[in-house]
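Progress narrative, work stream C.
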Amino acid sequence: MTGEQFTIIVLVTALLIDLAVRVIAIIVVPRNRRPSAAMAWLLAIFLIPYLGVLVFLLIGSYKLPKKRRDKQKAINEFIIETTHGIELVTDDRPWPTWLRSVVHLNRELGAMPLVGGNSASLIGDYAASIAAMTVAVDTAERFVHCEFYLIALDEVTAGFFDALERAVGRGVIVRVLVDHITAIRSPTHKATFKRLTAMGATWQFMLPVQPLKGKWQRPDLRNHRKLLVVDGIVGFMGSQNLVSRHYNKKSNIRRGLKWQDLMTRVEGPIVSGINAIFITDWYSETDELLSRETVELTDEIVNSAPDALDCQLVPSGPGFEGENNLRLFLALMYYAQKKIIITSPYFVPDDSMLYAITTAAQRGLDVQLFVSEIGDQAGVYHAQRSYYESLLKAGVTIWLYPAPYILHAKHFTIDAEVAVIGSSNMDIRSFNLDLEISLMVRGASFVDEMRSVEDGYRALSRRLTLEEWRRQPLRSTILDNLARLTSALQ
């Protein structure tokens, strides 16, 4: 065989492989995937075939391994069986005509019921929320369940770690879950885990990427939940991680960035639901089902006051068949009659969410969006900005929370009826790739408190106008649009 013949064979083989890759991609990539995401993946594979295929094989599947999904189904069935009839909700206060169908939707998706007899308060001060959680841990008699996307031992959280150690010393069982990839990227991770081990706490990585130990899934599937449960009586959840306000990152410290978060402290039957989420995640990671760590609902736990809150938890993530948080958010957006106020640090909606929000504004509703003036993640920040013009044209009011703060709170209110708070951003990552937890609350007192928080944001923020937006430089528009394209790779 001559060198020329060999070259021809190599070229023909390469062309055939390239053609086969493209044909297979057209068949495989769009299956059970959003059209926008499928187009983004196909574009990547067609423009850079070998690298595109490699990346797709690495992160193309946004589902957890089948074993974990089966565990989630088993837990859902257990929750439905054990929570039947505990709703405790009365019709003393008239329900909005649409609320019952949303409650049914949430129950079908995430298995958790709507339960009454709860009380809740909001904590918007960063140090105060950690202090409140520390105080709660110091009251523990049976167990402390602590689950956060990021837990770091530093000067801000040292008191919380001391409280955990005191609890262990009293004979309290302390269990800690922390996201693997996020945790090991923290500058203080070695000191953090050393301290937890030394105090006698039982801790476990969530969604560990440890192929040598047989633990593997798409590496950017993360557990983004933030919750704390003390004795099944007091619970905390929201947007804040257990870490210093600048996350101990040199780049954040250099820029002077400070995170602004919102947590809620809850009491009542809903705390058992938050604990059930922890039990689910603990079981998924350890195969240990904590059936004993449950609390009987007594008159002391159930708030019988006329203004008690009705609450429903909505867990979501790649362990579920559907996008539970997205479906909840969409339902509420379309049911809203007067006002929608959204706070989201990373606002990169899919088409359905963008349409729901802009349609609400075009229906004449007062629709407001709070976002940060600056960003801590360049790609997400520019992708978010690419949606501003469509929102402004539809009549959405955009408020820019001032630097050097990163408005990291995640919540929204619907009319005077319902508020939602939790760990979920309104972006494609939170809808598809991250495990999240959202709390839907019905109760005028809670909605009013949330509106006071929103008023505080508004007093500090400035309004972005369409005229100002159209004056942005061309280079910013190009960066925004490129970031928007890559955000669809899911």
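Work stream C, second folded protein:
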Amino acid sequence: MEKIFDLIVIGTGSGGSAAAMKCKKAGWEVAIIDSRPFGGTCALRGCDPKKLLVGAADMIESTRRMEGKGIPSTVTIDWPELMAFKRTFTEPVPESREKGFGKAGIHTFHGQASFVSEDTIQIGEDVLTGKNFLIASGAKPVSLPITGSEYLVLSDEFLELDELPARLIFVGGGYVSFEFAHIAARAGVEVHIVQRGERPLENFEPELVDVLMEKSKAIGIHIHLNSEVKSVEKKSDSFIVTAMTGDESLELEGDLVIHGAGRIPAIDDIQLEKANVEWSKGGIAVNEYLQSVSNSRVYAAGDAAATAGLPLTPIASMESHVVASNLLKGNHRSPSYKVMPTVVFTLPKLASVGLSEDEARKKGHNIRVNKFDTSDWYTYKRTNEQYAMAKILIDEDSDLILGAHLISEEADELINHFATAIQFKLTTNDLKQMIYAYPTAASDLAYMI
């Protein structure tokens, strides 16, 4: 097939879908391509299925915290049943998404898209010419210089396990490792996290990460810091992970070794050089309008673009809307990265929005730091939650909130109130005048500022 399209989109996740739909609604001829099942990482291999598993682990955590306080701690996770339930959410997605594109009149293609020139791509036997392109192909795990790296299991595969092994080893101390480790630990698994650096989750406030590490250790997760994995060796039905901690060797045995050491843009198979598209390991080089700096036909969004945006689904979606607007009306809109709330879905949850304390001081703000151990506040004490903290950064001159950092069972919802305050420049005085329903986590906000 050879056809000319007004827009060709590579990727069917959040970064590609919005722009495809908007441009089609405006009357454009649109094609969308994916080398994997339609739906993208979040719906199929990331946020949504992960949150479902976290929900089950949360029920275990809640009952264990209340043991001896009126709730018997006898509930356990039936992993096969839980995975079967998870698949009721993920399995319908590809067909549903493809039908949605088809109903809208968008042409769909399956396979690896590769540029053959600045305005032409090939997918198998199909050759498509585009007036414009949007690359929103997402991210993939970074390759690790580890002997035996072929034995590493990716996060996608963890989310498809029919049975949960008795011993898991996570390589790397980021979101993936901690979130999955907290799920597995609540299912009774022996869990190890091997982190190369001196602290995990480096983009979060150190004090709150320390609280999370304390809780992680309390539920039996073994965290090995300053330990660089050198090799993974298969031994019968298990694996031996060897790491170096300074001059000392650390050897761990597990039934599965999981890659949790970071992700990079999934763009190296698209043959961008044939399209004269500049890119690096950080993504496609774009201007303020998310347009390629070297090929004006090409735009990028989500993890595929080298921007200041965090690798989060809402950011990819926002960028896709920005691209659509620029395609339809000419370059006029730039993405805003002022407010990017992010959550690590461990138990308790770790959440952040705005500036860190270090960033605020480097920018020269006259800041007040309100830091509280909130575990003895009613909101958390009523469910016997012993690990909770809040750290709020306030500009003394403007009375505006610069950053909010939370760890608690309520952090994932509460962080959105702080995000709203930052987005709309609400002062702490404004927030203190708000009447919240009580008793709720949000009603604590006034005491934090």
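The chain has a mean pLDDT of 96. No further action is required on this item.
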